[in-house]
Amino acid sequence: ALFFSDKLLTITNEDPDEVLRFAELLYKRGEYHRAAHWIILKDLHLKSYSGRLLAARCCVSFLVFIYFFI
Predict the structure, then answer these.
(1) 29 partner at 20 to 30 Å CA-CA among 15, 22, 58, 59?
(2) What global pTM score does this model have?
(3) CA gap 40, 21 in Å, rounded
(4) Nearest-10 Cα torsion for 42, 46, 47, 53
(5) How confident is the model at residue 69 (pLDDT cuts 50, 70, 90)?
């Protein structure tokens, strides 16, 4: 699913909805830093509530991961 989402992101010229969908897939795979990077790169944390929420979830999950596993 991640592969096809990445290709769809390229085809749609990084449409904000597709970026959020891609970041959500990254979040579900445990790639919190990469998901937050995409959201912040496209300023979706400033433009939409769902982008802000997903960015916050990524940051919290990443900090919890570092705290418990490193």
Answers:
(1) 15
(2) 0.86
(3) 14
(4) 100
(5) confident
